[in-house]
Structures are given as C-alpha cells and as structure tokens.
Task: structure prediction
Amino acid sequence: MAGRHCWNDEAMAAMVTYMATPWQTFYQNLQAFHDDNSGLIENTFDGAIALCMSSSPLYRQGSAADHIQLILLASQLTHKGL
Result:
C-alpha cells in the first residue's frame, strides 16, 4: 500500500516557485504606479484647495458646481504639469 499523497500541495509548491518572479514584477510595477500617482493626486487636491482659497474670479462662494469645476481644472493643470 502506497503512502498518502496530496497532489494539491505538490501543485501549489510548484506554482509558488513558478509564479514568484511574475508576482514580484507585478508588485514592483504596482508600487511604482502608486508612487507616481499619489504625488499627482496630492498635487491635484493642493491645486484645487489653493484655487478655492484664492480670490480667483472662477470661485463663487457656496456653489458646489463651481467647486467641482475648480477641482477638475486643478486636475487638468496638474496633469499637464502646469
């Protein structure tokens, strides 16, 4: 009688070895994407806040639609590197 053999454990062990490099590459790419875009998001909101706090003629106190426009404008300017 043969001993007990778990094919799932064997398959998972091989898969862990096989997938280690692709997963590490994916993680590094995801980390780089996060690092690049977290600054963009922070700059976008900083720009939107600065516009809201300024005496910009685009800003009319109390209008949610205007606030949204300012945030979108800041996002576009930041994306263009202005």
About this structure: The mean pLDDT is 75. Residues 7-53 form the longest helix (47 residues). Residues 31-82 form one domain.
